[in-house]
Design a protein that fits this description.
Largest sheet: 14 strands, mixed
Helix content: 10-25%
Low-confidence stretches: 317-324
Structural class: mainly beta
Order of helices and strands: EEEEEEEEHEEHEEEEEEEEHEEEEE
Radius of gyration: 22 Å
Number of strands: 23
Length: 324
């Protein structure tokens, strides 16, 4: 596998070399990949970009360890580029993808401070979804990295990286995810990790600071949330909790986000030779139950014909089904 390493300031290729070894983590979480290459004459620096020929991975170098003829490089995913905290300014917009593009262009691509400018970054909004999804704020501070995660989680709007000789390319679009039905008793899926736990919220009482009003939200067995109390048979059985929301406009998204934390297993990972992509939806049959999940991580290891697929928190499907 050919590795390209590009200068963090100019995006000029510093090194193009075959990898001696690698373990690449694509993930929705903050993960670190390791790549080993022959030691190069050109220095590799923290902040340089690293990518592979033929693999959808773009990363940022965080550590370089030279040991004689070999250099081991630690790399975080390219979304790390947008981790700088900044103050939020409310603005009106029509499409969420275009708003995200404008945020990145203003604060990175065309930043007025040349030291923080990324002129070789090209951002494309490939779809246009109406709506309003405000970044999560802490004392009116946010960062774009966290905001991209919220858009993915609540709106299915994703950021995918690409590159060419002169440009780092970010494509923003609403994705239609693949769906996989998986019976874990099938020998083509080899479970490598399974941690069972559960936490289920079925009702949330919300207090909104903007109007000092309370409201009750109920989670239905079809996965939807409502303020109208459903019949007991249509409700998810779980804990009753509380939530404080700053603004009326944020209530629906914050409630959906809280219910989305329900899980019946913290983690499951499996080896497979099948093709999967990050965010693909999964319907897993295990122990006579059906679980809904998604692909939260994919690990590529040199020399292995398998990929390791990491699942997001599993959610039990209601009602329990006997078969896929």
């Amino acid at each position: 596998m050919i590795v390209f390493i590009k200068d963090k300031n100019s995006f000029i290729t510093k090194t193009m070399v075959s990898a001696v070894d690698y373990e690449i983590h694509e993930s929705i979480y903050d993960t670190v990949s390791t790549i080993t290459i022959p030691t190069q004459k050109s220095p590799i620096n923290e902040g340089d970009f690293l990518m592979f020929d033929g693999m959808p991975f773009v990363g940022i170098v965080t550590e370089v360890d030279i040991d004689g003829g070999r250099t081991e490089i630690s790399v975080e995913q390219a979304i790390k580029l947008f981790s700088r905290d900044m103050f939020y300014s409310a603005t009106s917009y029509t499409y969420m993808e275009d708003y995200l593009k404008d945020l990145i262009d203003t604060n990175y691509t065309n930043c007025t401070d040349d030291l923080y400018k990324v002129p070789f970054l090209s951002v494309n909004a490939l779809s246009h979804t109406s709506g309003n999804c405000k970044p999560d704020l802490d004392d009116n501070i946010f960062n774009i990295k966290s905001y991209t995660s919220k858009l993915r989680r609540l709106q299915d709007i994703v950021c995918e990286w690409d590159f060419n000789r002169t440009q780092l390319v970010l494509n923003i679009y609403k994705k239609s995810f693949g769906i996989h039905n998986i019976d874990m008793s099938n020998p083509r899926y080899i479970i490598t990790e399974q941690t069972i736990s559960n936490q289920v919220v079925g009702k949330i009482t919300v207090f909104c600071e903007e109007n000092s009003a309370y409201s009750n939200w109920y989670l239905k067995t079809d996965g939807t949330a409502t303020t109208t109390k459903p019949a007991d048979a249509d409700r998810v059985q779980g804990d009753w909790t509380t939530l404080v929301v700053n603004e009326i406009a944020d209530i629906t998204d914050d409630v959906k986000d809280e219910f989305a934390k329900n899980y019946y297993s913290h983690k499951i990972s499996f080896l497979t030779d099948s093709h999967f992509e990050i965010y693909d939806r999964l319907k897993l049959r295990m122990d006579g139950k059906i679980f809904n999940s998604y692909v939260s991580g994919i690990i590529h290891t040199k020399g292995s014909k398998y990929i390791e697929v990491e699942c997001g928190e599993l959610q039990t499907q209601y009602p329990f089904l006997n078969r896929l």
